[in-house]
Amino acid sequence: MKNQKMYEADDKMIVLIRDNYDLLQILSCFGINLGFGDKTVREVCEQQNVDAYTFLAVVNFVINNYKEFDDAGRLSVSTLIQYLKASHQYYLGFELPFLRRELLEALDENDNLGRFIMRLYDEYSRSIQNHMKYEEKTVFPYVEKLLHGESTEGSFDIDTYSDHHGQTDKKLGELKSIIIKYLPSDVQHNNRLMAALYDLYNCENFLSQHAKVEDEIFVPAIRHLEKKTKNSDVSSQISKMINKNPESSETLSSREKDVIVGVVQGMTNKEIADHLFISTNTVITHRRNIAKKLQIHSPAGLTIYAIVNKLVDISSVKL
């Protein structure tokens, strides 16, 4: 019997399992081993290196469809990746092969209808494998790059994944319907079919929960991570621009510094040339060299550089 309630970190882990035995599957996917005695959720998670907040977000969502967790930023993306990868391993390595064996034992292999049912199951199995392999080859590496602060320029974002993350269990529904409505069998095969059908329903429920966790917990967590990473990149670029680089100041000649001052003051190339008694082409050459040395091309960027390196006083700059 299931007991639907909101679970907290100070609840005993054994209580969660007694109330909702199907959480055993979730424990397995989080990498939580049995034998935790009367420890609380917090204690078990700390002992087994699982983020308790993320674990409870998944548990309460699966049991009660509760998704108003406090803060997506508190979700541990690495814990979610671990959970989703383990779910894939369980499904691809155990559940799909197990169900196939059950169906083979329950069906008459000499019956055309039985062969057709197995073909439907194999098509379903391939669609699930392709879906999960796509996530493992594309989505998870992208997220891991975000976690490690590596460049993801040119990669898709999580919304691209979310927009194309549809249900993949239509073939399973068709398979169950055919077995229930149209498959005649004797008593012996009927018992096996009933058992296989029961496991198919459990399988469908597991897959549905897995997809919902991805949509309602994983995707928001990655959106938050993307936003955080983007803000960090912008801050880093600004920091590189405004932080004084002692070497860069020394590499500029006095004439190049004069040209920067002219640019900051809003002069055209010709006005700078006239002011410094040099040719316009020489000014252009100086500006090209400045951009190459400083990796700053815009007047705004040169203004920041000039202020930080005390080439001009900020009070004299029209912002």
Automatic annotation (TrEMBL):
Keywords from UniProt, A to Z, are:
DNA-binding, Transcription, Transcription regulation
What organism, scientifically named, is this protein from? Prevotella lacticifex
Residue intervals of the HTH luxR-type domain: 245-310
SMART domains (UniProt xref) = HTH_LUXR
Q: Which Gene3D superfamilies does this chain map to?
A: nmb1532 protein domain like (1.20.120.520), Winged helix-like DNA-binding domain superfamily/Winged helix DNA-binding domain (1.10.10.10)
Record bears the keyword Glycoprotein:
no
PANTHER family noted in UniProt: DNA-BINDING TRANSCRIPTIONAL ACTIVATOR DEVR_DOSR
Mind telling me what this protein is named? HTH luxR-type domain-containing protein
One Pfam entry name: Hemerythrin
Swiss-Prot/TrEMBL GO biological process terms = regulation of DNA-templated transcription
- What's a Gene Ontology MF term here? DNA binding
